[in-house]
Structure formats: C-alpha cells, structure tokens
C-alpha cells in the first residue's frame, strides 16, 4: 500500500480487513501478499520511493514520510 498509494485516510479508506480464522488461511494470505508485494517492488523505479506518503484521519495527520521510509522497516 505504501508504494502504490500516496495516503491512507482512515475516514475514507477503502481498505478492507481480510478475515483469517486459522493457520492455513493465514499462510495462504501471507503467500498471496508476498507474491503481490514482490511484483510491485520488482517493477518499482528508484524515483517511486521518493514521494511523501501520509497516514491521517480527517484533519489529523499521524505520519508523513517518504515511501522509502515507510517500507524500509519491512525490508529488514
């Protein structure tokens, strides 16, 4: 989400929580998410990581940083 969007507004977000009820569903979700994320990262150019990504709710901003800073902890 951090690389494919510019923001996440909790008041208007279309984000849908995917229900997981057991380990098999969780592993399937992780596998699907991993494949999708790997494809997005593989196709990204260096400049794609430079724009600012913002998390907020209405007028209240919680976080504002480059897309690189958003995804960097996940890549460790």
For the residues shown, what is the average pLDDT? 90
Write out the strand line-up for the largest beta sheet, numbering strands in chain order.
1-2-3
Helix content: 25-40%
Classify the oligomer.
single chain
Q: How many DSSP-defined strands?
A: 3
Count of the separate structural domains = 1
Which geometry do the CA atoms define?
flat
The gyration radius over C-alpha positions equals 14 Å
First-last Cα distance: 17 Å
**Number of distinct helices:** 2
The residue ranges in which pLDDT falls below 50 over 5 or more consecutive positions are none
Instruction: Give the percentage of residues in beta strands.
Output: 15-25%
Structural class: alpha+beta
Verbal overview:
By secondary structure, the protein is an alpha+beta fold. The protein is 34% helix and 21% strand. The protein has helices spanning 23-43, 67-71; strands spanning 7-9, 52-57, 60-66. It has a 3-stranded mixed β-sheet with strand order 1-2-3. Strand 1 (7-9), helix 1 (23-43) and strand 2 (52-57) form a beta-alpha-beta unit.
Would you kindly provide a brief summary of this structure?
With 76 residues, this protein is of the alpha+beta class. It has one domain (7-75). It has helices spanning 23-43, 67-71, and strands spanning 7-9, 52-57, 60-66.
């Amino acid at each position: 989400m951090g690389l494919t969007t510019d923001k996440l507004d909790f008041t208007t977000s279309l984000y849908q929580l995917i229900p997981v009820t057991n380990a098999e569903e969780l592993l399937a979700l992780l596998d699907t998410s991993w494949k999708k994320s790997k494809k997005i990262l593989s196709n990204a150019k260096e400049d794609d990581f430079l724009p600012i990504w913002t998390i907020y709710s209405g007028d209240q901003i919680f976080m504002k940083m480059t897309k690189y800073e958003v995804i960097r902890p996940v890549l460790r």
